[in-house]
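Regression test attached.
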Amino acid sequence: MSDNEYIPKSKVGKWFNDRLPLLTLANHLTDYPTPKNLNYWWTFGGILTFCLITQIITGLTLAMHYIAHADMAFESVEHIMRDVNYGWLIRYIHANGASMFFLAVYIHIFRSLFYGSYKSPREIIWIIGIIIYLLMMAAAFMGYVLPWGQMSFWGATVITNLFSAIPLVGEGIVTWLWGGYSVDNPTLTRFFTLHYLIPFLILGLVVLHIWALHVPGNNNPVGIDIKKPSKDTVPFHPYIVIKDGFALLMFMIVFAFFVFYSPNILGHADNYIEANPMVTPAHIVPEWYLLPFYAILRSVPDKLLGVIAMLSAILILAVLPWLDTSKIRSAVFRPLYKQFYWILVADVLILGYMGAMPAEGLYLLIARVATAYYFLHFLVVLPLLGFKEKTLPVPLSITEPVLGGMANLATAKQNESIDKIK
Amino acid sequence: MKSFLKIFSILIFLGCSLNFYSSAAEKVEYLKTDWSFKGLFGKFDRGSLQRGYQVYTEVCASCHSMKYLSYRNLAEDGGPEFSVAEAKAIAASFDVTDGPNADGEMFIRPAKLSDKFVMPYENIKAAQAANGGAYPPDMSVLVKARGGGVDYIYSLLQGYEEAPSGITLDDGVYYNKYMYGNNIKMSAPLSDDLIEYGDGTKATVEQMSKDVTTFLMWAAEPHLESRHRMGFKAIVYLIILTILVYFSMKKIWSRVESEV
Amino acid sequence: MSEKKTNRRDFLFTATYAVGAVGVGAAVWPMIDQMNPDASVKALASTEVDISSVKPGNTITVLWRGKPVFIRRRTQEEITEARLVKMEDLIHPEKDEDRAKNPEWLVMLGVCTHLGCVPLNDKGDYDGWFCPCHGSHYDTSGRIRKGPAPWNMEVPKYEFVNANTIKIG
């Protein structure tokens, strides 16, 4: 928080603020200069904050009624659905909220990919974001185990068994994760504990994510550095608050349709059958938001390599700022990258679809090609593109989006002064 | 205006593709009927629920438990809505084990509204032993536990056929064209006029299938009606607030020269 | 900016805030109400007690809504003692006739109205109950006579189903 000049008007406010500068913080958040050309893809940060808070509140209230015990978990969920006042509403918001959370986070991530928001000087924001994304997956997976239905049980079995791919210590790690010789009550209680903990870790990381964002300020659709505050920026409140609010409300309409009119469509029917260690469901499918990675896992014929491929698919994102060699941020000025970007989007969607299909025949072949392309995009296409691509002229500022300029404000200014001398 | 319509349609598109993802696996054509509980204002047909309860209790309940329901549910809003006196009478026709009493002994008493539905078997093992090894699944959430939902249950009840030539069935196994793998261990449970409906409706297999499936839908989603009511209100509210916020946003952004 | 324009803007913002606040309120209520007694708890709200084996001068304690209920079959002396007390002498004046419809049977929550402990039978200065936690004395009608408790022990809603059975709740 660089703007230390803020001095509260009231005496009490000043007294308090000298001891704990909360008012300075509030003032910083209110006045925070934001590029005025942010489009609606930028509203998903606010929407994600809403999702996290909603999940935490509904989760806390569910935890007041849920019983983390293998013999009682399923029954306690039915108790919530039938007897607890508004229990069905709270549970459906929580269950569908997880899906909406991931829907929003994918849009947020792909927005960042399109406009190059991960590039210097925003690498730390991006890496914190990837950690949040990983924790979200962990929280979602463990949350799915809690109702103790068939998919809970077998999902937990399959995912924990991934660790058995590790040479030598793998089996030991899996037994340690389970707290027994199979997924059972000890597994359930520890998953509940961690499922309760992780959202608060995410909350802490979100604070860091926003803190790191407020150092360089927001990227914007043009992708150039801007002076702040200036005529290119508007104060966060009320301009961005109302715009985020408007987008959030539209998001909530979609959310409400799921909660009230098809609350179970995103879940799997088998999870309404109580866990049975003797019978595996015919098709084990993870929740939709994990399907692309599931497809990558299955497309590699070797157990250990499959796990490594799946993990790399996520971790490769963490080094993305260094894989992308282009100095231009926004895809608007990168005609070639723009095409590859949409191919990647299609590739991930195909992977997701293949993850839901049986791993055989043509499906498997397509999944393999898509997996190979996924890595090709990050490891080959992006590094080369930075050198080969002929980019379009970038404007000097948001308000003067005409003349050729540089992505970097300092260089652009230099050019400007050179022009003046001429 | 243009840009937010774009993003809204993208959201809806993504929402629909999520639906597609999850329904992609199910491809079977089920028998269709008009369910009164579908749609924005969907409600249960009380008569159908009450008849459905009769089918359940006279036919299914001899093998299938419904352990998450209580007799009080029968009188609750949004359900079959038997009167409290009727529900009490239904409960009292079942015996439950209670206790221990002051002497430390368990005793049998008529069920009360607060009691759970009495189960046909003590436990899963007993149920399996009595049914040739197959456990008749608990019916409390059955329609939500099957991919095809109500259409699947409705079809299954009417899907019994002679096995096609070339397929030999083991003893105690029946052919059903809607069952996964076509082999089912439950014999056809319904036949025309198997029961006599209290309200005089003709008890055809089709009618009974529809009634009992409606009853099972309610059993799995007892708050469906209030969910639909609340959903409609919530969405209308959200639309109104969205419109208000939209105009407020226009107003605020008119101070700067920029398009929202 | 003209005054008319300002008014219109103010109205729009006020309406937005007001409608938004209604929604927040509506969303908060389920989160609060979920902590109220649920449908299965409410369904257990009544219990029937067999009192045929209780002898005069004895008290049985039964559990109702998770709280002890004292059912005392009073002797004639206890009834007389309770009915002779003058209203002026009571901290929380209530007639014994109102507390025990059938004078032989006193039914009340066995919970001290001070801070919720369970008083002891046949103890204290007034031949009734005595709360060991902070020294409240109750008489043979369960009325507070001495000590920090502010009210008499509460009489729940109950009825005689027949001569031998009381239904509480």
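Expected vs. actual: identical. Chain A has 16 helices and two strands.
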